[in-house]
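Morning!

As promised:
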Amino acid sequence: MTHPPYLYPGYKSTVLRAPAQELIMPKLGPDSVELSSPVFGHQELGRLDNDLTVQHSGEPLGQRIIVTGRVLDGAGRPVRNALVEVWQANSAGRYNHLGDIHPAPLDPNFTGAGRCLTDDEGRYRFITIKPGAYPWGNHHNAWRPAHIHFSVFGTAFTQRLVTQMYFPDDPLFPFDPIFQSIPEERDREKLISRFDMDLTKPEWALGFQWDIVLGDTPMEA
Amino acid sequence: MTTPAKTTQAETTPSQTVGPFYGYALPYEAGPRVAPAWRPDAITIRGRVLDGAGEPVPDALLEIWQADENGEIPRRPGGIVREGHDFSGFGRCGTDAAGGFWFTTVKPGAVGAGAPYIALLVFARGLLKPVATRIYFPEDEAAHAADPLLAEVPADRRGTLVAEREGDRAYRFDVRLQGEGETVFLAF
């Protein structure tokens, strides 16, 4: 199974939120509404929505990075004009969200949200700051590995994917129940971006590559 | 519309939870306003998301996708920025502190042989992948009897997929993630 199960008790919030009943698997599968997807256009996005480092008057603190990759379908074909949305903590591991009470500093020059549409090759591209790891209340001394949240639309509403991209060699992977909820190691590795020297820009930013492959649905067994 | 190629699961990117902090990134002003409220055929759908203890889920994100009043599936942009008169078919709403959400839209026409419905996805902290369901309408009883998907749902749970009428052009649809009255969720 590629995707995590609904119930993964090591991640406490699943205990009261995971459906307990068997999911219904309609014999006819999804119908034409569910097999289509909303369409998004460039006129709906700001020109700089994919650069999280220029949304304020000053430069955000932290390590500047370029994150790019392709959105592909199961046959390896690019998904064009797909809306990709991202959000993340700042370099200190703090989200610009009232609910985040981690006593790390907010950065007045970093909101941590961006979006873009994929191009004809299915490629998205963001410029941002490497997020910090941060503590959470799931268990004693719980820390999330650094990650960027991704939200992606495919060509079918049933393909809708929300996931998280991680960074290579994070020492927190073995301790993180959200990452570990994915049953197979080879599937967990699909969420880890790859450092790319060719993408890295001299005197400016480190480059990370990460491709996203959309399945039929995340609800598939 | 192209049907996505059947995927070999080997390469599929796994899902992860939306987490608790999507609130400053994903919701947007026009998100719940799928159709403008001044349209004479506008309807509102309100509801709550509840967990297995019956407690409200204050950090869920709901997305709807539907055909228009004629059963046409929208094929043009407008999901984020609507021009006031526009209908995009896509809506997004985060829940409030009481687990509440709302959408203003139009009732979809039937697409194909089934009864009219709105496709719904719910994301939340604690959901490692979304739950998918459908919102049907209470006045379509006859069409429900012939709906191929509803036919596969055990009769005693079918009601969880049907909105309640709350007034003239107003409906209620609660999502119970777990436990008594658990909403029927779909896997395709």
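Chain A touches chain B through 90 residues (CB under 8 Å).

Hope this helps with the figure draft.
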